[in-house]
Amino acid sequence: MSGRPGSRIFRNVLLRLLYGAASVVFISLVTFLADEIAPGDPAMLRMGEKNFTVERYEALKREMGLDRPWPVRYGEYMVNAAQGDFGESHTGTRDEVSDILRKVLPVSMQLAFLAILFAAAIGLVLGTVGAVFENRTADRAVLSVSTLGVTIPNFVLAPVLAYFFAIKLGMLPLTWEIESKMEAPKFYYMVLPVLVLAARPMATLTRLTRASMIDTLNQEFIRLAVAKGVPSLRLYFKHGLRNAILPVLTGIGTSFGYLLTGSFIVENAFIVPGIGREAISAIQKGDTPVIMACVIVTGFMFITVNLLVDLVQQVIDPRIRESQV
Amino acid sequence: MKKRRLDWLFWVGVAYLAALLLFSAFGTLRHPVSVVAKRGVYDVGIRGDGGSRGLTVRVALRESPAAAAGIEAGDIVTQVDGKPVGGLGTLEVEDMFIGPRGTSVSVSLLKGGSLPETISLERSYVPDARPFMPPSEEFWLGTDEQGRDVFSRLAYGARMSLTIGFSVQIIALVVGIVMGTVGVFGPKWVSIPVLRLTDGMFAFPDILLAILIVGIWNKRFEAMIVALAITAWPAVARLVRTQIASLKDRDYVVASRALGGTTTYLVLKHILPHLWGILLAVAMIDVAAVILAESALSFLGIGIQAPTPSWGAMIESGRVNMNSYPMMLFWPCLILSLTIFALNFVGDGLRALADPKSG
């Protein structure tokens, strides 16, 4: 590559950022248009059928800004959304959507963060074990567990685990409580949701780690290290895993998307007051502004995490670092 | 090169799917679907099989008005409320029997060769009114929280899942193949937007887009089909695109083009035939994904709407009642998980056959 050192990484980062921005625009545009072509007329809804007159309808449309073409309204919606203003809820006390989000997002983020941490930790260990004992009993066990984890849907796993751990064994609370009413420390309430949420990412990360480790362990420098007499733990973790971890990082990014939609299931199964539960109850009530905000925010987080993973990869991949010199 | 052979898991999967197909077709026969699907309907207690002459009675349920009136197995119902029922299907005839409590239905009967007689039966029999009945001869897997037969509901759920899974996947395959092909061979002003659109769809994590569409379109059934198809096609398109990209510069394709083959000819004759195997394999696994997505939506209460039975909704109601009636949770979870496993086994087997390297 030509140019100053670092110009290539700079260009890549810029491209990723542009791509991320385009994705956010795409998601929000699709969401906005889905609302636009959906049946139901917000002005009509607010006025109610019995008060209908053409003049008042037109006036209300103007007042709500619905008389302008959709691209203008989309632009306005996005400008407001960027400042954290998603309008107000259509139902109940007409809360600001941003207030609702501020209440539910931290809960979901906490769950997702714990789940991905747990999934990555277990996935890396199991994957490494599988690779080290390739085709032996331990490896087969790891493979079967990860196949189960990928195949069993979370909405099956959630009630089944809840049945055994909460009802049969009585070890863990069945559902989330309001924080003031929680009897056990909050940690106990999080165990089941995090476990269910983490199950599939854990399985995919295990598979990724295993495949990547097997690749790495078959390379020359590992054989050299073995010949030099590097102790085996140090060999596997320092020499092996460090090199095998790149594809796993990408896996963490894509798993995060699964975590986000998985939270819809998990939060509804365990009655956790997070964004997934809020979105579903908004759908039940037909509360479009909240639905749109939840979808856009979820999509935004997915894109951001993938962007971060991409950027981290750019920075730590030695092949890119070396190519700059 | 590895020998191309289907492993036993593939055949287990195929056998399971065949059994599931039979189950979905015949599992609702013992109890009419309308009773399964509607609450508060009453029946006269006749179970039979439709035929050209009429409905041949298989059994008049114990303590039902039909049994009280002396109807027996082997009798043939020729008319219901004056309408001839010869040639109608079982479900159609059974639909005519049920109705609000206390109303009556007149039934014309052929009893072992004697002259037809017409009797009036009061709709008073509640075939499955008691909730949470344990498994019995009548209800093989017991009844659910509204007293509906779990066995028929599972079978009806199988019908829904298989129909939705395969029809959505067929739509996704058609759209995906067209988009994937156009993305490689189309003129620039078409192919570039198509490529961007395909990639853009991946910005939506998992089934978020389906949730959005179903949510905003007010939980309609058609909206769910569209939503699931929209979620499923980009993966097909991407697969087709990468496969075509690796095939299009092969010698025989280039040769065919040099001989004057048009792009359409090349695609249809030389490229797509290579893709069928891998597409079929991936489609099987994607059908599993569609069934999962549908069940997830139904579990969340925004997919298939009650009273139509679906596995996802059964799991949700089983979850609510699992404290006292864990079996209500067990059956739908089992059948759904087995179905997903079977589809994956079949898909994996086909993939190993179509693309030996991947196995």
Protein traits:
heterodimer; A: 325 residues; mainly alpha; B: alpha+beta; elongated
Would you kindly provide a written description of the structure presented here, covering whatever features stand out?
The complex is a heterodimer of chains A (325) and B (359). Chain A has 325 residues and is mainly alpha-helical. Helix content of chain A is 78%, strand content 0%. Chain A has 13 helices and no strands. In chain A, helix 6 crosses helix 8 (186-217), helix 7 packs across helix 10 and helix 8 (186-217) packs across helix 10 (232-269). The N and C termini of chain A lie close together (10 Å). By secondary structure, chain B is of the alpha+beta class. Chain B has helices spanning 8-26, 33-37, 65-68, 90-97, 150-185, 188-201, 208-216, 221-247, 251-258, 263-299, 311-320, 326-354, and strands at 46-49, 55-60, 76-80, 83-84, 104-110, 117-122. In chain B, strands 1, 2, 3, 4, 5 and 6 form a 6-stranded antiparallel sheet that branches. In chain B, helix 1 (8-26) packs across helix 5 and helix 7 runs antiparallel to helix 8 (221-247). Chain B is elongated and about 80 Å long. The interface between A and B is large, with 47 and 39 residues.
